[in-house]
């Protein structure tokens, strides 16, 4: 069972503190949503585990959201049904209750990865889709030059892809997800061609790994990036990224079908 925080959140990040304004920066990107919808293979009923404020719930006709953080549940838009207050490791649903199950940017928050994935497999008759990042690739991003402890945190928190596929079992595929230059879902790599966006404190706060770095250290990282952008040093090293329509970074979509 996950340890629950005061606001109900589970895992290692306190969304009661950092979740404010999350939806201003973490808007679902429709190109990523299209790949997720394809992975769900026409499922009508889908459980969205670690649903947050409701991102990517347009991918199926009927979505049941599960979210343990009161702060995140409160940010769900009015047109979405309320989320169930529960954790991945103990889903309050019957076996095979849904056509499919999904989770996006959530597995690294769970206290027991294997238990959560087994629960997703238990309640879904068909595909289980997991949108996450490959920790082996996280440090390849240019931000590592400026904020190494932030990406060290991400690499430590994201579970290995093999651990996810082994826990899900069945027939699994791992699909790299191209990140568009104008990606509307503001995780760190979404700003690969727009480094100025990471000077915004709200944008950084919407990426939970920044919350594991002391504020003074975070400010040092930000000031270094600000200085290199002003001097042209960032563009001298990475300016070609501004002209790339997509980045092939650490983002992956794992799909598992029953054995």
TrEMBL record:
Residues 1-20 are annotated as: Disordered. Pfam families: Methyltransf_11 (PF08241). InterPro entries: Methyltransf_11 (IPR013216), SAM-dependent_MTases_sf (IPR029063). GO terms for molecular function: S-adenosylmethionine-dependent methyltransferase activity. The lineage of its organism: Bacteria, Bacillati, Actinomycetota, Actinomycetes, Kitasatosporales. It comes from the Bacteria. This is Class I SAM-dependent methyltransferase. Keywords: Methyltransferase, Transferase. Residues 48-125 form the Methyltransferase type domain. One of its GO terms (biological process) is methylation.
